[in-house]
Write a structure and sequence with these properties.
Helix content is about 60%, strand content about 0%. The protein is an all-alpha fold and about 90 residues long. The chain folds into two domains: about 35 residues, no CATH class; about 40 residues, no CATH class. The longest helix is centred in the first third of the chain and has 13 residues. The chain is elongated.
Length: about 90
């Protein structure tokens, strides 16, 4: 077993790395699911943006097809989280 020369420095570097990647507040809001901070990984940011737009992408054709307002659709499905992307 190797004894570290500067264990507190190593621990500080590890803590800095963790806090620069994990969004603890967002993770807490999502029932402990680990959330990564924006701008850590470009590909992850792109996926996050696409995911955020999925509801709009799925609801808008439904509205056109059935001719219903977004409010009535949300009442039917109970999501209540529609936020149009501009």
């Amino acid at each position: 077993m190797q004894i570290l020369a500067h264990p507190l420095e190593d621990l500080n570097r590890l803590a800095d790395a963790v806090f620069s990647i994990i969004d603890f507040e967002e993770s807490r809001l999502h029932s402990g699911r680990v959330c990564v901070l924006p701008r850590v990984d470009e590909e992850l940011d792109e996926l996050r943006t696409k995911y955020a737009g999925l509801e709009t992408m799925l609801v808008c054709p439904f509205m056109r097809f059935f001719g219903q307002s977004i409010e009535s659709i949300l009442m039917i499905f109970g999501t209540g989280s529609y936020r149009p992307e501009y």
